[in-house]
Amino acid sequence: VLENQDLQDSIKPQKVEFHSLNFNTTLHWQPGWAREARDALYFVQYKVYGQSTWQNKDECWGISGHVCDLTHETSDIQEPYYSRVRAALAGVYSNWSLSSRFTPWRETVIGPPMVTVVHSNKSIMVKLQAPRSPYKRKRGSKIPMTSYYDLLYQVFIINNLLDEQHRVLVYEGKDKVIEIQDLRPGVSYCIVAKMYMPMLDHSSAYSKRQCILL
């Protein structure tokens, strides 16, 4: 019995955490500390905070990996959720390891916008597209993150003659197409943008830089 108890403890999953980007939500965990824990299989359950019964996640029932996609299960984005994972090895089951409480609307990370740049001789046109959630409208298109939050685009310009890190904010607002004027021909400029949420004072990461020589 003692050996079983030791095995139970040593294969118990560690660090059960939700990770979420634009409401694409996955549960991650690490294997127990026993060397043989790498051969364990994992079982995932989830529930909304306050519910008494746990639901099995069928696609993550007896899996060998350490990630489980719960995007679909956490689609009511204002609700707080929990998840838990247990391991099994050689007929022995560990106790459950519980995640922290996770509320998608509060905790998902908002990604950067997509940026396209087009130039004329002294100006740059910047086209912006908000990141999209995995959830779909009736017609099938993915709902943009701007439908869930009051988000602003922030657009920065980097003059490549100057210091790389010297980003100048040239626009903040909701327009999807902006024009940056009075630039110098023969100079290479780069544009980066991010999404900004005034209410929670959160910013996304920067978009990939788009560079252009006027």
TrEMBL record:
InterPro entries per the UniProt record, alphabetical: FN3_dom, FN3_sf, Ig-like_fold, Interferon/interleukin_rcp_dom, Type-II_Cytokine-TF_Rcpt
Q: Which SUPFAM superfamilies match?
A: Fibronectin type III
A Pfam match: Tissue_fac
Subcellular location per the Swiss-Prot or TrEMBL entry: Secreted
Fibronectin type-III domain: residues covered: 12-107
What is a single cellular component term in the Gene Ontology annotation?
A: extracellular region
Which Gene Ontology MF annotations are present? cytokine receptor activity
Which key words are in the record?
A: Disulfide bond, Receptor, Repeat, Secreted, Signal
Bilayer-spanning residue ranges? none
> What does the protein in this record do?
Receptor for IL22. Binds to IL22, prevents interaction with the functional IL-22R complex and blocks the activity of IL22 (in vitro). May play an important role as an IL22 antagonist in the regulation of inflammatory responses.
Q: Which family does it belong to?
A: Belongs to the type II cytokine receptor family.
Q: Which PANTHER family match?
A: INTERFERON/INTERLEUKIN RECEPTOR, INTERLEUKIN-22 RECEPTOR SUBUNIT ALPHA-2
Protein name according to UniProt: Interleukin-22 receptor subunit alpha-2
